[in-house]
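Q: Hi! First time doing this. I have a protein sequence and I read that you can turn it into a structure. Is that right? Here it is:
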Amino acid sequence: MQATMYTSKSCSACTAAKELLRAHAIPVTTVMVDQDITLEEVREQFPDAKQLPVTIIDGNCIVGLARLRSFLSSLYEGSPMSKSQQVLLG
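A: Yes, that's right. Below is the predicted 3D structure, encoded as structure tokens:
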């Protein structure tokens, strides 16, 4: 499993999302909005994305931190998680 995250320097949800992915040992490639890509290009590629972060995991487009938590939680349904993973998923 691998992730690509569209983020910005001033995005606190993006920072939390990166920490969440690291806690789950999911490698993440960061694409910086206004540095690597424009916000307009992000909106063109992901028309439903109204906020950052936009995270792509194995072809799944996940918009926002709450949806990322939900997506990761669904991956672990029925399997044991560590306490740190449980805390991060909220």
